[in-house]
Design goal:
This protein has 468 residues and is α+β, with helices and mostly antiparallel strands. It has 4 domains: 4-90, Uridine Diphospho-n-acetylenolpyruvylglucosamine Reductase, domain 2 (2-Layer Sandwich); 97-215, Uridine Diphospho-n-acetylenolpyruvylglucosamine Reductase, domain 3, CATH 3.30.465; 219-334, Alpha-Beta Plaits (2-Layer Sandwich); 341-431, Alpha-Beta Plaits (2-Layer Sandwich). It contains 17 helices and 18 strands. A 7-stranded antiparallel β-sheet has the order 15-12-14-13-17-18-16, sandwiched between helices. Strands 5-6-10-8-9 form a 5-stranded antiparallel β-sheet. Strands 1-2-4-3 form a 4-stranded mixed β-sheet, with helices on both faces. Strand 5 (97-101) and strand 6 form a beta hairpin. The longest helix has 15 residues, at 230-244. The chain is globular. It binds flavin-adenine dinucleotide (FAD) and zinc ion. Residues 31, 66-74, 77-78, 91, 111, 133-135, 139-140, 142-144, 146-147, 149-151, 200-201, 205-206, 334, 426-427, 463, 466 line the site of flavin-adenine dinucleotide (FAD).
Length: 468
Protein backbone atom coordinates (compact mmCIF):
# COMPACT_ATOMS: atom_id res chain seq x y z
CA UNK A 1 0.00 0.00 0.00
CA UNK A 2 1.24 3.53 -0.77
CA UNK A 3 2.21 5.71 2.17
CA UNK A 4 0.18 8.85 2.85
CA UNK A 5 3.06 11.08 1.70
CA UNK A 6 3.38 9.09 -1.57
CA UNK A 7 -0.33 9.56 -2.10
CA UNK A 8 0.00 13.34 -1.62
CA UNK A 9 3.03 13.43 -3.94
CA UNK A 10 1.01 11.67 -6.64
CA UNK A 11 -1.58 14.48 -6.41
CA UNK A 12 0.62 17.60 -6.28
CA UNK A 13 3.84 16.37 -7.96
CA UNK A 14 7.36 17.05 -6.69
CA UNK A 15 6.93 20.86 -6.96
CA UNK A 16 4.05 20.73 -4.54
CA UNK A 17 5.59 18.76 -1.69
CA UNK A 18 8.26 19.78 0.84
CA UNK A 19 9.51 17.30 3.43
CA UNK A 20 13.19 18.18 4.04
CA UNK A 21 13.43 19.67 7.55
CA UNK A 22 15.47 22.75 6.52
CA UNK A 23 12.99 23.54 3.72
CA UNK A 24 9.98 22.93 5.95
CA UNK A 25 11.26 25.31 8.69
CA UNK A 26 9.98 28.66 7.30
CA UNK A 27 6.44 27.22 7.11
CA UNK A 28 6.63 25.68 10.59
CA UNK A 29 6.77 28.86 12.68
CA UNK A 30 4.83 32.11 12.76
CA UNK A 31 5.93 35.65 11.81
CA UNK A 32 6.72 36.64 15.39
CA UNK A 33 8.57 33.33 15.96
CA UNK A 34 6.42 32.74 18.98
CA UNK A 35 5.17 29.32 17.91
CA UNK A 36 7.23 26.58 16.30
CA UNK A 37 5.59 23.41 14.99
CA UNK A 38 6.68 20.24 13.26
CA UNK A 39 4.55 19.40 10.22
CA UNK A 40 4.55 15.96 8.57
CA UNK A 41 4.93 17.83 5.26
CA UNK A 42 4.23 21.14 3.55
CA UNK A 43 1.85 20.64 0.65
CA UNK A 44 1.55 23.32 -2.04
CA UNK A 45 -1.25 22.48 -4.49
CA UNK A 46 -1.50 24.40 -7.77
CA UNK A 47 -5.26 24.17 -8.42
CA UNK A 48 -8.62 23.81 -6.69
CA UNK A 49 -8.83 20.22 -7.97
CA UNK A 50 -5.51 19.42 -6.30
CA UNK A 51 -6.63 21.04 -3.03
CA UNK A 52 -9.80 18.93 -3.13
CA UNK A 53 -7.87 15.70 -3.72
CA UNK A 54 -5.40 16.48 -0.93
CA UNK A 55 -8.23 17.28 1.51
CA UNK A 56 -10.03 14.06 0.53
CA UNK A 57 -6.87 12.04 1.20
CA UNK A 58 -6.53 13.80 4.59
CA UNK A 59 -10.19 13.11 5.43
CA UNK A 60 -9.72 9.42 4.67
CA UNK A 61 -6.64 9.14 6.87
CA UNK A 62 -7.93 11.66 9.47
CA UNK A 63 -4.83 13.80 8.92
CA UNK A 64 -5.12 17.33 10.33
CA UNK A 65 -4.70 20.22 7.86
CA UNK A 66 -3.27 23.66 8.71
CA UNK A 67 -4.11 26.08 5.86
CA UNK A 68 -1.49 28.76 5.27
CA UNK A 69 -1.15 31.83 3.05
CA UNK A 70 1.64 34.40 3.43
CA UNK A 71 2.23 33.30 7.06
CA UNK A 72 2.15 36.89 8.38
CA UNK A 73 -0.63 36.24 10.92
CA UNK A 74 -0.02 37.43 14.49
CA UNK A 75 -1.75 34.77 16.60
CA UNK A 76 -0.17 31.46 15.58
CA UNK A 77 -3.20 30.42 13.54
CA UNK A 78 -1.19 29.13 10.55
CA UNK A 79 1.39 27.20 12.59
CA UNK A 80 1.05 23.40 12.98
CA UNK A 81 1.48 21.70 16.36
CA UNK A 82 4.62 19.78 17.31
CA UNK A 83 3.18 16.28 16.85
CA UNK A 84 4.69 15.75 13.41
CA UNK A 85 1.31 14.47 12.16
CA UNK A 86 -0.34 17.64 10.74
CA UNK A 87 0.24 18.91 7.21
CA UNK A 88 0.64 22.58 6.30
CA UNK A 89 -1.50 23.27 3.22
CA UNK A 90 0.12 26.34 1.72
CA UNK A 91 -1.90 28.10 -1.00
CA UNK A 92 0.87 30.32 -2.43
CA UNK A 93 1.05 28.50 -5.77
CA UNK A 94 -2.61 29.25 -6.46
CA UNK A 95 -1.92 32.85 -7.50
CA UNK A 96 -3.89 33.51 -10.68
CA UNK A 97 -6.27 36.40 -11.24
CA UNK A 98 -9.03 34.47 -12.99
CA UNK A 99 -11.09 37.42 -14.25
CA UNK A 100 -11.67 41.16 -13.99
CA UNK A 101 -15.08 42.65 -14.76
CA UNK A 102 -14.78 46.44 -14.63
CA UNK A 103 -18.48 47.00 -15.39
CA UNK A 104 -19.48 44.78 -12.50
CA UNK A 105 -16.58 46.21 -10.47
CA UNK A 106 -15.31 42.78 -9.45
CA UNK A 107 -12.27 40.59 -9.81
CA UNK A 108 -12.11 36.84 -9.33
CA UNK A 109 -8.83 35.76 -7.79
CA UNK A 110 -7.18 32.67 -6.34
CA UNK A 111 -6.38 32.40 -2.64
CA UNK A 112 -2.60 32.59 -3.02
CA UNK A 113 -2.52 36.02 -4.71
CA UNK A 114 -0.35 38.42 -2.67
CA UNK A 115 -2.41 41.43 -1.55
CA UNK A 116 -0.06 44.04 -3.08
CA UNK A 117 -0.31 42.26 -6.44
CA UNK A 118 -4.11 42.50 -6.30
CA UNK A 119 -3.93 46.22 -5.48
CA UNK A 120 -1.71 46.68 -8.58
CA UNK A 121 -3.93 44.51 -10.77
CA UNK A 122 -6.95 46.60 -9.80
CA UNK A 123 -5.07 49.85 -10.43
CA UNK A 124 -3.96 48.69 -13.89
CA UNK A 125 -7.65 48.17 -14.67
CA UNK A 126 -8.42 51.72 -13.44
CA UNK A 127 -9.98 50.50 -10.18
CA UNK A 128 -9.18 50.41 -6.48
CA UNK A 129 -9.00 47.30 -4.30
CA UNK A 130 -8.92 49.09 -0.95
CA UNK A 131 -7.68 46.46 1.53
CA UNK A 132 -4.36 47.82 2.79
CA UNK A 133 -2.09 46.74 5.63
CA UNK A 134 1.60 46.88 6.48
CA UNK A 135 2.05 43.18 5.57
CA UNK A 136 0.56 43.66 2.09
CA UNK A 137 3.82 42.73 0.30
CA UNK A 138 3.60 39.16 1.61
CA UNK A 139 0.14 38.36 3.02
CA UNK A 140 -2.24 36.58 0.63
CA UNK A 141 -5.92 37.15 -0.03
CA UNK A 142 -6.91 33.69 1.27
CA UNK A 143 -5.22 34.60 4.57
CA UNK A 144 -6.76 38.09 4.53
CA UNK A 145 -10.24 36.63 4.14
CA UNK A 146 -9.67 33.84 6.67
CA UNK A 147 -8.62 36.44 9.28
CA UNK A 148 -11.14 39.07 8.12
CA UNK A 149 -8.21 41.47 7.92
CA UNK A 150 -8.67 45.16 8.70
CA UNK A 151 -5.89 47.66 8.07
CA UNK A 152 -5.83 51.36 7.31
CA UNK A 153 -8.83 51.93 5.01
CA UNK A 154 -11.57 50.17 7.01
CA UNK A 155 -13.12 53.49 8.01
CA UNK A 156 -14.23 54.07 4.43
CA UNK A 157 -14.35 50.66 2.76
CA UNK A 158 -14.91 48.17 5.58
CA UNK A 159 -12.79 45.16 6.51
CA UNK A 160 -12.14 42.09 4.34
CA UNK A 161 -15.62 40.70 5.07
CA UNK A 162 -17.22 43.67 3.37
CA UNK A 163 -15.08 43.40 0.25
CA UNK A 164 -16.20 39.92 -0.84
CA UNK A 165 -19.14 38.92 -3.03
CA UNK A 166 -18.40 35.23 -3.56
CA UNK A 167 -16.13 32.36 -2.51
CA UNK A 168 -14.94 28.99 -3.71
CA UNK A 169 -14.23 26.68 -0.77
CA UNK A 170 -12.94 23.13 -0.41
CA UNK A 171 -14.91 21.64 2.47
CA UNK A 172 -13.36 19.29 5.07
CA UNK A 173 -14.92 16.38 3.14
CA UNK A 174 -12.99 17.35 0.00
CA UNK A 175 -16.15 18.55 -1.80
CA UNK A 176 -15.82 21.87 -3.66
CA UNK A 177 -18.43 24.57 -2.96
CA UNK A 178 -18.58 26.93 -5.94
CA UNK A 179 -20.01 30.13 -4.49
CA UNK A 180 -18.16 32.45 -6.89
CA UNK A 181 -21.11 34.78 -7.47
CA UNK A 182 -20.50 38.43 -8.29
CA UNK A 183 -23.83 39.71 -6.96
CA UNK A 184 -24.46 42.69 -4.70
CA UNK A 185 -27.96 41.46 -3.99
CA UNK A 186 -28.67 37.79 -3.32
CA UNK A 187 -31.20 36.96 -0.62
CA UNK A 188 -31.50 33.23 -1.13
CA UNK A 189 -31.02 31.94 2.37
CA UNK A 190 -28.03 31.86 4.68
CA UNK A 191 -25.01 33.87 3.59
CA UNK A 192 -22.64 30.88 3.66
CA UNK A 193 -19.54 32.73 2.45
CA UNK A 194 -19.51 34.78 5.66
CA UNK A 195 -19.04 31.57 7.68
CA UNK A 196 -15.64 30.96 6.10
CA UNK A 197 -14.48 34.59 6.37
CA UNK A 198 -12.72 35.12 9.69
CA UNK A 199 -12.87 31.37 10.44
CA UNK A 200 -9.05 31.11 10.47
CA UNK A 201 -9.10 27.96 8.34
CA UNK A 202 -11.18 25.94 10.82
CA UNK A 203 -14.16 25.30 8.52
CA UNK A 204 -12.66 24.77 5.06
CA UNK A 205 -10.01 25.93 2.60
CA UNK A 206 -10.78 29.09 0.63
CA UNK A 207 -9.44 28.57 -2.90
CA UNK A 208 -10.83 31.62 -4.74
CA UNK A 209 -12.94 34.74 -4.19
CA UNK A 210 -14.91 37.39 -6.06
CA UNK A 211 -13.73 40.74 -4.69
CA UNK A 212 -15.36 44.17 -4.93
CA UNK A 213 -13.59 46.94 -6.83
CA UNK A 214 -14.09 50.68 -6.32
CA UNK A 215 -13.46 53.86 -8.35
CA UNK A 216 -9.77 54.76 -8.34
CA UNK A 217 -9.19 58.00 -6.38
CA UNK A 218 -7.52 60.76 -8.44
CA UNK A 219 -6.39 62.92 -5.55
CA UNK A 220 -5.60 62.50 -1.89
CA UNK A 221 -4.42 64.46 1.11
CA UNK A 222 -2.44 63.36 4.17
CA UNK A 223 -2.24 65.32 7.41
CA UNK A 224 -0.60 64.86 10.80
CA UNK A 225 -2.37 66.58 13.67
CA UNK A 226 -1.00 67.17 17.18
CA UNK A 227 -3.39 66.79 20.12
CA UNK A 228 -3.47 67.02 23.88
CA UNK A 229 -5.49 63.84 24.57
CA UNK A 230 -7.15 60.85 22.84
CA UNK A 231 -10.47 62.52 23.75
CA UNK A 232 -9.52 65.45 21.49
CA UNK A 233 -8.72 62.92 18.74
CA UNK A 234 -12.19 61.41 19.00
CA UNK A 235 -13.68 64.92 18.77
CA UNK A 236 -11.56 65.57 15.67
CA UNK A 237 -12.82 62.33 14.10
CA UNK A 238 -16.40 63.50 14.55
CA UNK A 239 -15.56 66.87 13.06
CA UNK A 240 -13.65 65.34 10.12
CA UNK A 241 -16.48 62.95 9.27
CA UNK A 242 -18.94 65.85 9.33
CA UNK A 243 -16.76 68.05 7.14
CA UNK A 244 -15.29 65.47 4.74
CA UNK A 245 -17.83 62.63 4.73
CA UNK A 246 -16.80 59.52 2.84
CA UNK A 247 -13.61 61.22 1.64
CA UNK A 248 -12.11 60.41 5.03
CA UNK A 249 -10.31 57.13 4.30
CA UNK A 250 -8.03 56.61 7.29
CA UNK A 251 -7.81 58.04 10.80
CA UNK A 252 -4.90 56.68 12.86
CA UNK A 253 -3.81 57.60 16.38
CA UNK A 254 -0.33 57.30 17.90
CA UNK A 255 1.26 58.56 21.10
CA UNK A 256 4.49 60.53 21.36
CA UNK A 257 6.21 57.45 22.82
CA UNK A 258 5.37 55.55 19.59
CA UNK A 259 6.87 58.43 17.59
CA UNK A 260 10.03 58.38 19.70
CA UNK A 261 10.49 54.64 19.01
CA UNK A 262 10.14 55.17 15.26
CA UNK A 263 12.59 58.10 15.26
CA UNK A 264 15.06 56.04 17.33
CA UNK A 265 15.01 52.92 15.15
CA UNK A 266 14.47 54.37 11.66
CA UNK A 267 17.24 56.83 10.86
CA UNK A 268 15.58 58.38 7.80
CA UNK A 269 12.37 59.42 9.58
CA UNK A 270 11.75 62.91 10.96
CA UNK A 271 9.32 64.33 13.53
CA UNK A 272 6.38 66.11 11.86
CA UNK A 273 6.67 69.29 14.00
CA UNK A 274 9.56 71.34 15.42
CA UNK A 275 8.32 70.52 18.94
CA UNK A 276 6.73 67.40 20.42
CA UNK A 277 3.14 66.88 21.57
CA UNK A 278 1.41 64.16 23.63
CA UNK A 279 -0.58 62.53 20.79
CA UNK A 280 -0.87 62.59 17.01
CA UNK A 281 -3.50 61.69 14.45
CA UNK A 282 -2.66 60.72 10.89
CA UNK A 283 -5.54 61.50 8.54
CA UNK A 284 -5.90 60.35 4.96
CA UNK A 285 -8.52 61.69 2.56
CA UNK A 286 -9.14 60.70 -1.02
CA UNK A 287 -11.43 61.74 -3.84
CA UNK A 288 -12.31 60.66 -7.36
CA UNK A 289 -12.04 64.34 -8.41
CA UNK A 290 -8.52 65.35 -9.40
CA UNK A 291 -6.97 68.64 -8.24
CA UNK A 292 -6.52 70.37 -4.90
CA UNK A 293 -10.09 69.86 -3.60
CA UNK A 294 -9.41 67.43 -0.74
CA UNK A 295 -6.31 69.30 0.39
CA UNK A 296 -8.21 72.57 0.58
CA UNK A 297 -11.03 70.82 2.41
CA UNK A 298 -8.79 69.28 5.06
CA UNK A 299 -6.79 72.50 5.46
CA UNK A 300 -9.87 74.59 6.16
CA UNK A 301 -11.26 71.99 8.56
CA UNK A 302 -7.97 71.88 10.49
CA UNK A 303 -7.67 75.68 10.55
CA UNK A 304 -11.07 75.93 12.21
CA UNK A 305 -10.11 73.23 14.76
CA UNK A 306 -6.87 75.10 15.49
CA UNK A 307 -8.68 78.40 16.00
CA UNK A 308 -11.06 76.74 18.45
CA UNK A 309 -8.01 75.24 20.23
CA UNK A 310 -9.28 71.70 19.73
CA UNK A 311 -5.97 70.70 18.21
CA UNK A 312 -2.44 71.89 19.00
CA UNK A 313 -0.86 71.93 15.54
CA UNK A 314 -1.33 70.42 12.08
CA UNK A 315 0.75 69.71 8.98
CA UNK A 316 -0.76 68.84 5.60
CA UNK A 317 1.59 66.99 3.22
CA UNK A 318 2.68 69.22 0.33
CA UNK A 319 4.05 66.41 -1.84
CA UNK A 320 3.81 62.69 -2.42
CA UNK A 321 7.16 62.26 -0.67
CA UNK A 322 5.93 64.08 2.41
CA UNK A 323 2.73 62.05 2.44
CA UNK A 324 4.76 58.84 2.41
CA UNK A 325 7.03 60.20 5.15
CA UNK A 326 3.98 60.91 7.34
CA UNK A 327 2.63 57.41 6.73
CA UNK A 328 5.95 55.80 7.63
CA UNK A 329 5.70 57.38 11.11
CA UNK A 330 2.58 55.28 11.66
CA UNK A 331 3.55 52.17 9.71
CA UNK A 332 6.97 51.67 11.30
CA UNK A 333 5.60 51.57 14.87
CA UNK A 334 5.21 47.77 15.03
CA UNK A 335 8.72 47.14 13.76
CA UNK A 336 10.28 49.89 15.91
CA UNK A 337 8.64 48.32 18.91
CA UNK A 338 9.97 44.86 17.96
CA UNK A 339 13.52 46.31 18.01
CA UNK A 340 13.01 47.17 21.70
CA UNK A 341 12.51 43.49 22.56
CA UNK A 342 9.40 41.54 23.55
CA UNK A 343 6.30 43.39 24.76
CA UNK A 344 2.73 42.52 25.60
CA UNK A 345 0.41 43.20 22.69
CA UNK A 346 -3.33 43.78 22.62
CA UNK A 347 -5.50 44.20 19.55
CA UNK A 348 -8.74 45.52 20.98
CA UNK A 349 -11.83 47.30 19.76
CA UNK A 350 -14.05 49.56 21.83
CA UNK A 351 -17.04 51.66 20.81
CA UNK A 352 -15.38 54.86 19.54
CA UNK A 353 -17.34 56.95 22.02
CA UNK A 354 -15.68 55.09 24.92
CA UNK A 355 -12.13 54.80 23.63
CA UNK A 356 -10.62 57.69 25.58
CA UNK A 357 -12.26 56.36 28.76
CA UNK A 358 -10.68 52.96 27.97
CA UNK A 359 -7.20 54.44 27.58
CA UNK A 360 -7.46 56.61 30.71
CA UNK A 361 -8.89 53.95 33.04
CA UNK A 362 -6.72 51.07 31.78
CA UNK A 363 -3.52 53.17 31.83
CA UNK A 364 -4.33 54.12 35.43
CA UNK A 365 -5.08 50.55 36.48
CA UNK A 366 -1.85 49.23 34.94
CA UNK A 367 0.10 52.04 36.56
CA UNK A 368 -1.34 51.14 39.97
CA UNK A 369 -0.47 47.48 39.48
CA UNK A 370 3.02 47.84 37.97
CA UNK A 371 4.27 51.42 37.88
CA UNK A 372 6.53 52.84 35.18
CA UNK A 373 5.10 50.79 32.29
CA UNK A 374 5.67 52.34 28.89
CA UNK A 375 2.49 52.26 26.86
CA UNK A 376 2.79 51.88 23.09
CA UNK A 377 -0.72 53.01 22.23
CA UNK A 378 -1.59 53.40 18.56
CA UNK A 379 -4.07 52.15 16.02
CA UNK A 380 -7.04 52.63 13.80
CA UNK A 381 -9.01 55.13 15.89
CA UNK A 382 -11.51 55.64 13.08
CA UNK A 383 -12.53 51.97 13.50
CA UNK A 384 -12.42 51.96 17.30
CA UNK A 385 -9.41 49.62 17.08
CA UNK A 386 -6.33 50.13 19.25
CA UNK A 387 -3.04 48.29 19.35
CA UNK A 388 -2.65 48.81 23.07
CA UNK A 389 0.81 47.42 23.70
CA UNK A 390 2.63 47.36 26.99
CA UNK A 391 6.44 47.65 27.23
CA UNK A 392 8.61 46.99 30.25
CA UNK A 393 9.48 49.88 32.59
CA UNK A 394 12.89 51.46 32.03
CA UNK A 395 15.58 49.18 33.46
CA UNK A 396 13.43 46.00 33.48
CA UNK A 397 14.53 43.31 31.00
CA UNK A 398 11.79 42.81 28.39
CA UNK A 399 12.30 39.03 28.58
CA UNK A 400 11.54 39.06 32.32
CA UNK A 401 8.69 41.54 31.94
CA UNK A 402 6.71 39.32 29.55
CA UNK A 403 6.32 36.77 32.36
CA UNK A 404 3.55 39.11 33.57
CA UNK A 405 1.60 38.60 30.33
CA UNK A 406 -1.34 36.70 31.85
CA UNK A 407 -1.88 39.24 34.66
CA UNK A 408 -1.59 42.23 32.31
CA UNK A 409 -3.91 40.61 29.78
CA UNK A 410 -6.44 40.15 32.56
CA UNK A 411 -6.41 43.87 33.44
CA UNK A 412 -6.59 45.00 29.82
CA UNK A 413 -9.15 42.48 28.59
CA UNK A 414 -11.44 42.90 31.61
CA UNK A 415 -11.39 46.64 30.95
CA UNK A 416 -12.26 45.98 27.29
CA UNK A 417 -15.15 43.76 28.34
CA UNK A 418 -16.49 46.33 30.82
CA UNK A 419 -16.71 48.89 28.02
CA UNK A 420 -18.45 46.54 25.57
CA UNK A 421 -15.37 45.87 23.43
CA UNK A 422 -13.66 42.89 21.80
CA UNK A 423 -10.31 41.31 22.73
CA UNK A 424 -9.48 40.71 19.06
CA UNK A 425 -10.33 43.49 16.63
CA UNK A 426 -8.46 42.37 13.54
CA UNK A 427 -5.79 39.72 14.17
CA UNK A 428 -8.04 36.82 15.19
CA UNK A 429 -7.83 34.22 17.96
CA UNK A 430 -5.58 31.50 16.53
CA UNK A 431 -3.85 29.70 19.38
CA UNK A 432 -2.85 32.94 21.09
CA UNK A 433 -6.33 33.89 22.34
CA UNK A 434 -8.11 30.53 22.07
CA UNK A 435 -8.31 30.06 25.83
CA UNK A 436 -8.66 33.76 26.65
CA UNK A 437 -11.87 34.09 24.60
CA UNK A 438 -13.56 31.48 26.81
CA UNK A 439 -13.72 34.15 29.52
CA UNK A 440 -15.28 36.84 27.35
CA UNK A 441 -17.81 35.17 25.02
CA UNK A 442 -21.03 33.82 26.45
CA UNK A 443 -21.37 30.01 26.81
CA UNK A 444 -24.27 30.15 24.34
CA UNK A 445 -22.21 31.94 21.69
CA UNK A 446 -19.31 29.51 22.15
CA UNK A 447 -21.66 26.53 21.88
CA UNK A 448 -23.15 27.91 18.65
CA UNK A 449 -19.63 28.18 17.26
CA UNK A 450 -18.86 24.59 18.30
CA UNK A 451 -22.08 23.36 16.69
CA UNK A 452 -21.13 25.02 13.40
CA UNK A 453 -17.67 23.51 13.59
CA UNK A 454 -19.08 20.01 14.21
CA UNK A 455 -21.59 20.37 11.38
CA UNK A 456 -18.98 21.33 8.78
CA UNK A 457 -15.99 19.41 10.10
CA UNK A 458 -17.27 16.39 12.05
CA UNK A 459 -13.84 14.72 12.07
CA UNK A 460 -12.16 17.90 13.37
CA UNK A 461 -9.36 17.83 10.78
CA UNK A 462 -9.44 21.53 9.78
CA UNK A 463 -6.88 23.53 11.75
CA UNK A 464 -7.56 21.82 15.10
CA UNK A 465 -6.58 23.71 18.25
CA UNK A 466 -7.23 27.12 16.70
CA UNK A 467 -10.11 29.48 17.60
CA UNK A 468 -12.04 26.89 19.66
P1 LIG B 1 -1.60 33.39 7.27
O1 LIG B 1 -0.83 33.99 8.40
O2 LIG B 1 -0.88 32.44 6.40
O3 LIG B 1 -2.89 32.65 7.87
C1 LIG B 1 -3.76 33.32 8.73
C2 LIG B 1 -4.97 32.44 9.05
O4 LIG B 1 -5.73 32.18 7.88
C3 LIG B 1 -4.61 31.05 9.58
O5 LIG B 1 -5.64 30.64 10.45
C4 LIG B 1 -4.64 30.17 8.36
O6 LIG B 1 -4.90 28.81 8.69
C5 LIG B 1 -5.78 30.78 7.59
N1 LIG B 1 -5.69 30.68 6.13
C6 LIG B 1 -4.74 31.20 5.31
N2 LIG B 1 -5.06 30.96 4.03
C7 LIG B 1 -6.23 30.27 4.04
C8 LIG B 1 -7.08 29.74 3.02
N3 LIG B 1 -6.79 29.88 1.73
N4 LIG B 1 -8.21 29.09 3.40
C9 LIG B 1 -8.52 28.93 4.72
N5 LIG B 1 -7.75 29.41 5.70
C10 LIG B 1 -6.63 30.09 5.37
N6 LIG B 1 -3.77 42.38 10.15
C11 LIG B 1 -4.80 43.25 10.06
O7 LIG B 1 -5.95 42.82 10.06
N7 LIG B 1 -4.58 44.59 9.97
C12 LIG B 1 -3.36 45.13 9.96
O8 LIG B 1 -3.21 46.35 9.89
C13 LIG B 1 -2.24 44.24 10.04
N8 LIG B 1 -0.99 44.71 10.01
C14 LIG B 1 0.05 43.84 10.06
C15 LIG B 1 1.34 44.34 10.00
C16 LIG B 1 2.44 43.48 10.03
C17 LIG B 1 3.83 44.06 9.94
C18 LIG B 1 2.23 42.08 10.13
C19 LIG B 1 3.37 41.10 10.14
C20 LIG B 1 0.93 41.58 10.20
C21 LIG B 1 -0.16 42.44 10.18
N9 LIG B 1 -1.46 41.96 10.24
C22 LIG B 1 -2.51 42.84 10.15
C23 LIG B 1 -1.72 40.52 10.42
C24 LIG B 1 -1.71 39.69 9.11
O9 LIG B 1 -0.96 40.31 8.12
C25 LIG B 1 -3.11 39.47 8.60
O10 LIG B 1 -3.78 38.66 9.55
C26 LIG B 1 -3.22 38.80 7.22
O11 LIG B 1 -4.56 38.87 6.80
C27 LIG B 1 -2.79 37.35 7.22
O12 LIG B 1 -2.65 36.89 5.87
P2 LIG B 1 -1.66 35.69 5.51
O13 LIG B 1 -1.80 35.37 4.08
O14 LIG B 1 -0.29 36.00 5.98
O15 LIG B 1 -2.30 34.51 6.40
ZN1 LIG C 1 -3.71 47.14 12.81
Amino acid sequence: MRSFIEEIQAIVGPAGLITLPQEVAPYASDWRKRYVGKPAAVVKPASTAEVAEVVRACAESRTAIVPQGGNTGLCGAATPDASGTQIVLNLSRMNRVRAIDTRNNTMTVEAGCVLAKLQNTAEEAGRLFPLSLAAEGSCEIGGNLSTNAGGTAVLRYGNARELVLGLEVVLPSGEVWDGLRGLRKDNTGYDLKQLFIGAEGTLGVITAAVLKLFPLPKSHATAVVALETPEKAVALLERALGACGERLTGFELFSDFCLSLVLKHFGDTAAPFPRRFPHYVLMELSDTQSGEGVRVLVESMLEAALEERNILDAAVAQSETQSRAFWSLREFISEAQAHEGPNIKHDVSIPISRISEFIATTDAELERAYGGLRMVTFGHLGDGNLHYNVSAPEGVAPGVFVMHTAAINRIVHDSVARLGGSISAEHGLGQLKRDEIQRYKSPLELELMRKLKRALDPQGIMNPGKVL
